[in-house]
Specification:
single chain, alpha/beta, binds S-adenosylmethionine
Length: 195
């Protein structure tokens, strides 16, 4: 009886989750200005990368209203993985949670209201993919904190477009020279593959 009830709940839940096409139609409703979110090209790119990596554990630094997190969650339901996403701003965190619930993808997302600089040391690795997209002047600090928690072959992606190059100078120099990674660039992202 209990099992049958459990299956029923699962079926009802599955019926409520939006399809990828429906989530993509929903994404423009997220209210943050386009230049502060990763945008549809980078969203699709990160979605495809998550699937290609068969990622089970993904970390995002900077949830905002959940735009990039929804792209990652669409991929993670294919890989049966899960996203941890960190946001320091209470209002943004609350709005993102509403979007995760409205799309039926909340079960794939561990959305935490936290300062990434404090929370990352508490997180257990390994992660297959990390997306850095918070304060540009802190990118180097996020990078150094997450690097030991990324598995070999995993990727640290950083949203680098639309920023003042001075803000990212040290970070970009580090990811280009760090022997622990091989870095390439695609669209508005840097992608550092851990060796
Ligand atoms: C550019 S937005 C993120 C956009 C989001 N990734 C997307 O594409 O939809 C940056 C977010 O990082 C958050 N943030 C800034 N510093 C943070 C920190 N130390 N820890 C967690 N979140 C932070 C900001 O409040 C803001 O919501």
């Amino acid at each position: 009886m209990y099992l049958a009830g459990g299956w029923l709940v699962t079926l009802v839940w599955m019926a409520q989750a939006l399809t990828d096409a429906e989530v993509k139609a929903y994404l423009p409703k997220l209210s943050l200005p386009q230049e502060t979110t990763i945008g549809p090209k980078d969203g699709q790119y990160l979605h495809d990368l998550t699937v290609k990596l068969k990622a089970k554990r993904v970390l995002e630094i900077g949830t905002a209203h959940g735009y990039s997190a929804l792209w990652l969650a669409m991929a993670l339901r294919k890989t049966e993985g899960r996203l941890v996403t960190l946001e320091i701003h209470e209002g943004h965190h609350a709005i993102a949670r509403e979007h995760f619930a409205a799309t039926g993808l909340a079960r794939l997302v561990d959305a935490r209201l936290a300062d990434a600089l404090e929370e990352i040391p508490r997180l257990e690795g390994p992660f297959e993919l990390v997306l850095i997209d918070a304060i540009k002047t802190d990118y180097l600090r996020y990078y150094e904190l997450v690097l030991p928690k990324v598995r070999k072959g995993g990727v640290i992606a950083a949203h680098t477009v639309a920023s003042n190059p001075d803000e990212l100078r040290e970070f970009l120099a580090r990811i280009k020279a760090d022997p622990a990674v091989r870095t390439e660039f695609a669209h508005g992202l840097s992608l550092s593959y851990k060796k």
